[in-house]
Design brief:
Elements (H helix, E strand, L loop, with lengths): L25 H21 L3 E5 L5 H10 L2 E6 L2 H9 L9 E5 L6 H23 L22 H6 L10 H7 L7 H8 L7 E4 L2 E4 L4 E9 L2 H11 L3 E9 L18 H9 L6 H7 L4 H4 L4 H23 L4 E3 L13 H11 E3 L5 H15 L6 H29 L4 E5 L10 E6 L3
Parallel strand pairs: 1-2, 1-6, 2-3, 6-7
Antiparallel strand pairs: 4-5, 7-11, 8-9, 10-11
Length: 438
């Protein structure tokens, strides 16, 4: 029942130029080289010439798609600092093919309307570049690599269009008048009775689908993948989908249920009939490492894992018994070297966490050491439980991804689940891929 994890022989990776690899760690290089090759294959099959990279981060993937494969890329990133960083990576020979915008995709009708309008604005910028940078085309007076683009909200970008009624190229003029753009292939198609090209609808504006878009995401966290699926299903100009999900436990729950799991009617019916309710630990288990790393662990690595789990458990037990809340002051409470003994772990924890307790640190040390003495005998069961997790993890992840496949099928879209990475290097390695029929 588990998903196949071995990379398909058909999925080749691309070779990354040293300059393009700048800033990427080995894991990111592996992911980008394999993901970009898969995306290019899908874009060729679907005839897509624009890639919409949701959660684009610092633009590593988009940079490769443009530099290696010549695809136009629209990077959507929720963090302004990442958008700015992505712009700094642009080369002079690719800056007219990449648009980085600060935009957070959400699963609401209003957000999808804003997304469609934002895409229209980006399409106009691409056409302006294609027509010639010196031509005064319709669209905001901002160059594709201008940092001002990312300093505006999506609404502000769209508002600028109203003040640009100047000379336009034929393609942009046709679009601004909401008239289809006739090309030689269009005329030939019409003469053969096939009708005009596909149209897309957004904000009550119907226009020719100038660009066919592929919606992608590398490690889409929490609710992002479900939001992307709805955009893919509703937006006519989005012809393909390729995304790798992660952090299933970060999906938002409402009154004890998860709006985005299950998504499909079929799984929802089965779970309701059997009175099954997903929980945060259940979803968290689906996002754990696969068995690939487990099988290669040394005895020393297993012992380190025991201490990491046990020490953290004692800390949480203390907080529960004393009704104390604590928060990390740093990204990590402790590193591998801090788990050599419990005393060292306590000192690191007290210096890197903030506690709501009114007790002094000496009192906290005493109580934590008492818990260690009481529960140390149970540490031997940590790896036994971990083995059970390793066995169950792939089944839970399969259920989550299969639910999304079923939702796509229920909405008329066939899809595939493709192992795109080596799961030893990148455990979340299943790409959900789909394309719409012509």
């Amino acid at each position: 029942m588990a998903l196949p994890r071995k990379i398909s022989e058909e999925n080749k990776s691309c070779c990354l130029d040293p300059q393009i690899k700048r800033g990427m760690n080995p894991k990111k290089q592996h992911e980008v080289s394999h993901m970009s090759a898969l995306i290019n294959d899908i874009s060729v099959r679907t005839g897509c010439d624009v890639v919409i990279d949701v959660g684009s981060g610092l633009g590593y993937l988009g940079h490769v798609l443009t530099s290696v494969y010549g695809l136009k890329v629209i990077g959507l990133e929720s963090k302004q600092s990442h958008t700015t960083g992505a712009d700094k990576r642009l080369f002079s020979d690719t800056d007219d093919k990449i648009i980085n915008v600060t935009f957070e995709m959400e699963d609401t009708p209003e957000n999808r309307l804003e997304f469609k309008s934002l895409m229209k604005s980006c399409f106009q910028k691409f056409r302006k570049s294609e027509c010639g940078k010196d031509m005064d085309c319709d669209g905001p007076k901002v160059s594709l690599s201008d940092s001002n683009l990312v300093n505006h909200s999506a609404t502000n970008i769209l508002t600028q269009q109203k003040n640009t009624e100047s000379e336009q190229c034929d393609a942009c003029l046709a679009e601004s008048n909401q008239a289809p753009i006739q090309t030689d292939s269009d005329r030939k198609s019409n003469e053969q009775g096939d009708g005009p090209n596909t149209t897309l609808t957004g904000n009550d504006v119907t226009k020719r689908d100038v660009y066919r878009c592929l919606l992608i995401g590398l490690h889409c966290c929490g609710d992002l993948t479900p939001a992307m699926l709805r955009v893919y299903s509703e937006a006519d100009f989005v012809r393909g989908l390729c995304c790798v999900s992660c952090c299933y436990h970060r999906m938002v729950s409402q009154e004890g249920t998860y709006p985005h799991f299950p998504m499909s009617k079929e799984l929802d019916t089965v779970m309701s009939k059997n009175r099954l309710t997903p929980s945060a630990p259940f979803l968290r288990l689906g996002a754990q490492e696969t068995r690939a790393r487990w099988k290669t662990k040394s005895e020393e690595s297993h012992q380190s894992h025991v201490k990491a789990v046990a020490y953290r458990s004692l800390l949480e037990l203390y907080a529960h018994q004393e009704n104390v809340e604590f928060s990390k002051l740093f990204r990590r409470i402790a590193t591998a070297g801090d788990f050599e003994n419990f005393d060292g772990y306590i000192e690191k924890t007290l210096s890197r966490c903030q506690f709501s307790s009114t007790h002094g640190k000496d009192s906290m040390r005493t109580k934590l050491k008492a818990l260690y003495a009481e529960y140390h005998v149970y540490f031997q069961y940590v790896e036994v439980i971990t083995v059970l997790q390793v066995i169950v993890q792939p089944l839970i992840e399969r259920l989550i991804i299969q639910d999304r496949v079923l939702w796509l099928l229920e909405n008329g879209h066939d899809s595939d689940m493709i192992p795109v990475f080596d799961d030893f290097i990148s455990p979340r390695n299943i790409a959900l891929c789909s394309n719409k029929l012509p």
